[in-house]
Design brief:
Shape: elongated
Structural class: mainly alpha
Distance between the termini: 72 Å
Number of domains: 2
Largest sheet: 2 strands, antiparallel
Number of strands: 2
Length: 181
């Protein structure tokens, strides 16, 4: 495999950037600071690291690229990708690299344009917090207080809430919280 020319390398770098910037997992990791204060810089560094990985290694297979990206996400963003998107991202980057190697830069630029349009039209992915069972209990208690109404009802509800949690200390120093029925 011959090394990529500088113009081809630039196109491939743009392609990698476009793929990673439209990948919801990385967007969420950056937006929520999974990589710390420098999450955005780490995402930009990933583009260079991935491009360098292709430059340094010949004839990469999608599963090797997938492993590399997975390792980067785990090390830099403390994120394990298990949504099924990682093989797609790896396949997309590998395909664009092959097109660059074959000199089909116009096709790669067209794909970059489509990805950039997708990025601007769809916006950024958002992480929504999952409601835990404990949150459900809190909502039920609030609803009970709302349904009771009046000051007497509120005092009954708050007493019931306090009675829900009974603490007892065991011999080993742990405090066990149990619900009364």
């Amino acid at each position: 495999m011959a090394p990529l020319s500088s113009s081809t390398r630039e196109v491939f770098s743009e392609a990698v950037r476009a793929v990673l910037e439209t990948w919801p997992v990385l967007q969420i990791a950056v937006d929520n600071g999974f990589g710390g204060a420098f999450s955005q810089q780490k995402a930009e560094w990933m583009v260079d690291a991935l491009q360098q990985y292709f430059t340094d290694n010949g004839d990469l297979q999608p599963d090797e690229v997938e492993d590399f990206i997975s390792e980067l996400m785990n090390n830099e963003f403390d994120t394990v990708v298990d949504d099924g998107s990682l093989p797609q991202v790896a396949q997309q980057v590998c395909g664009m690299f092959q097109q660059c190697e074959q000199g089909r830069l116009a096709e790669v630029r067209e794909q970059i344009l489509k990805l950039n349009q997708k990025k601007t039209s769809s916006g950024r992915a958002k992480a929504t917090p999952a409601q835990t069972p404990q949150d459900d209990d809190d909502d039920d208690e609030e609803e009970a207080m709302d349904c009771e109404g009046g000051s007497a009802g509120a005092s009954v509800s708050s007493t019931a809430v306090n009675d829900l949690h009974h603490e007892e200390e065991e011999d080993d120093g742990w405090t066990v919280v149990r619900r009364k029925k």
